[in-house]
Specification:
It contains seven helices and four strands. By secondary structure, the chain is α+β, with helices and mostly antiparallel strands. Strands 1-2-4-3 form a four-stranded antiparallel β-sheet, with helices on both faces. The chain binds flavin mononucleotide.
Length: about 180
Amino acid sequence: MDAITMIKERRSVRQFKDQKVDRELMKEIVDIARWAPSWANFQVARYTLVDDKSIIQKLGTDGVKGFSYNVKTLENAQGVAVLSFVKGKSGKLDKDEYATNKANVWEVFDAGIACQTFCLAAHAKGVGTCIFGVIDDKAISSIVGLPEEETVATLIVYGYEEGDHAAATPRKQVDDILRFV
Ligand SMILES: Cc1cc2nc3c(=O)[nH]c(=O)nc-3n(C[C@H](O)[C@H](O)[C@H](O)COP(=O)(O)O)c2cc1C
């Protein structure tokens, strides 16, 4: 799959087959995602992959604030990547001072790049994903036992897509989002 097709044809997948994704394949996907760029190459993103049904169920009941879309998606998900990042590094050039007025926002930025890289790698390998923003990060940290120095950025549900590939969602026209100066 070429890069342009990979970018344009990735969709959020919310219906999954009753088939687990092999851990070796998920390891390959993270092995691709680790090539994402990051602030000062600090590589703060971490991936905790959950494929135990009872823990996925717990994420559904306690980890998505009862948001019905996400509860429903988790009911048929075969795996969930808890994407976290090591806090307090990105945005700094020396030990204590943030280098820009965005302060620690760069750690979330790094996590976003890691997230999209993971989703594109998964898509290229035939695995569907859906990013969740409606989450309870503290509850998720406790469910999966994240180390103290990390915080949850997002959940990425993954699995083999059930049915036809999700239809393309609309996008703004290039002239609506682009300006040259
Ligand atoms: C930061 C972020 C948070 C999102 N949160 C959710 C979510 O909580 N639940 C959900 O079903 N989809 C969520 N999505 C998926 C978006 O709805 C989806 O990407 C958008 O509608 C475009 O569709 P596409 O991904 O199929 O191209 C999220 C996407 C992003 C990037």
